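Milestone M4 deliverable, item 7.
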Amino acid sequence: MRLRLLAIVVVALLLSGSATAYAAWSRGAAVGSGPALQSGTFAVTTTWAVPLNLTAAAPGSVRTGVLSVARTGNGRWVYSLGTPVAAGGTVRVFPTASCSGATLALPWSQTTIQAGTATAQHCVEFTAATPLTAGQALSVSIPVSAENRSTN
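Output delivered:
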């Protein structure tokens, strides 16, 4: 009986020892079904593709610029344009880089999901107030926010 028990223990040790040795040099990974996972960064930048120059704007004059919203990184995204803050005038924002057609009702949220490296552009039109005070500062600020979307 002792001999039989000893044989069982020896076989068990041999099996566990070889499994441990195999695990020490073997590499493996569990892969689930479904789309591949990606990791990365989410960075959104806003720049003036065509600068909005308000220098020496006369009362009632109209100045235009093109706002670019771009993203670097993986995945899809959407963005929103908030209500602009304008000193010394009024602002209109168009849905494309062209300053024609209907303007956006701000605040505005995009409904089309953008690809990872997409760049959206909007024409921004500033009309200087009538009258303007001599030396009055003119400025425009447009809040932009962006959100990542699932790639599923």
